[in-house]
């Protein structure tokens, strides 16, 4: 009788171990899900950086006239009344100045509001 009980418990243990390692919701599936999460995080990282830049640009456009003026100059070529515009053919205009300004404002925003990184 004790022999059959030991065999039944060993068989039950084997079935449970199979479900743990290879069955639905087991460790194999868990490792696949973790790999998928890492892949999606890597894909989302550039999008997060872009969103931060855009958020900084929105804050700057809402609060500062310099950003609005810079955007008007670079996007639609506006010139102030007291300025003269000289166009030089073959010279490219650098448009990354706005991005650098937005990044600088994004870095200043937590310090200015007293927020701390946690």
Automatic annotation (TrEMBL):
Residues exposed to the Periplasmic side: 23-118
Spans within the Cytoplasmic topological domain: 1-4
Domain of life, source organism: Bacteria
Membrane topology: Single-pass type II membrane protein
One BP term from GO: FtsZ-dependent cytokinesis
InterPro entries: Cell_div_FtsB, FtsL/DivIC
Presence of the UniProt keyword Cell inner membrane in the record: yes
The keyword DNA-binding is annotated on this UniProt entry: no
GO cellular component entries: cell division site; cell septum; plasma membrane
Cellular compartment(s): Cell inner membrane
Entry function: Essential cell division protein. May link together the upstream cell division proteins, which are predominantly cytoplasmic, with the downstream cell division proteins, which are predominantly periplasmic.
Family label: Belongs to the FtsB family.
Subunit architecture: Part of a complex composed of FtsB, FtsL and FtsQ.
Classification via PANTHER family: CELL DIVISION PROTEIN FTSB
Protein name per its UniProtKB record: Cell division protein FtsB
Species: Billgrantia gudaonensis
């Amino acid at each position: 009788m004790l022999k059959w009980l030991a065999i039944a418990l060993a068989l039950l243990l084997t079935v449970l171990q199979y479900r743990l390692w290879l069955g639905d919701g087991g460790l194999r599936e868990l490792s696949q899900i973790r790999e998928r999460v890492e892949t999606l995080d890597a894909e989302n990282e550039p999008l997060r950086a872009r969103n931060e830049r855009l958020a900084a640009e929105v804050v700057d456009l809402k609060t500062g006239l310099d950003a609005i003026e810079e955007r008007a100059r670079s996007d639609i070529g506006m010139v102030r009344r007291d300025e003269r515009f000289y166009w030089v053919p073959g010279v490219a205009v650098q448009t990354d100045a706005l991005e650098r300004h937005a990044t600088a404002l994004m870095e200043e925003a937590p310090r200015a509001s007293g927020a701390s990184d946690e």
